[in-house]
Fold:
Amino acid sequence: MANSITPLGARVLVKRIDAEEKTAGGIVLPDSAKEKPQEAQVVTLGTGGKDEDGKTIEFSVKVGDVVLISKYGGTEVKVDHEDMLILNESDILGIVG
Structure:
């Protein structure tokens, strides 16, 4: 996939992973009842953050990682006709798996 956005600083571009459309009991959920998915896949890393001495801070995640994000964090953007999210690396709660 060709990305037309490169996040700046310690930001990360992610794509939400759709949640299950059925409950454990087999009930199909309508769109209005679904919560925003909290899992996302890292698509692109930003240009990197700097510490107080000007040294580059390494990212804790890499492209392709599945991560856990806060429900309402980040900024929604469209990239190549797909809904994505730009968020600070500090808004990533953990790596799944």
User: Anything to note?
Assistant: The domain at 11-18+32-95 is CATH 2.30.33.40 (10 Kd Chaperonin, Protein Cpn10; Chain O). The chain has one domain: 11-18+32-95. The chain is about 0% helix and 40% strand.
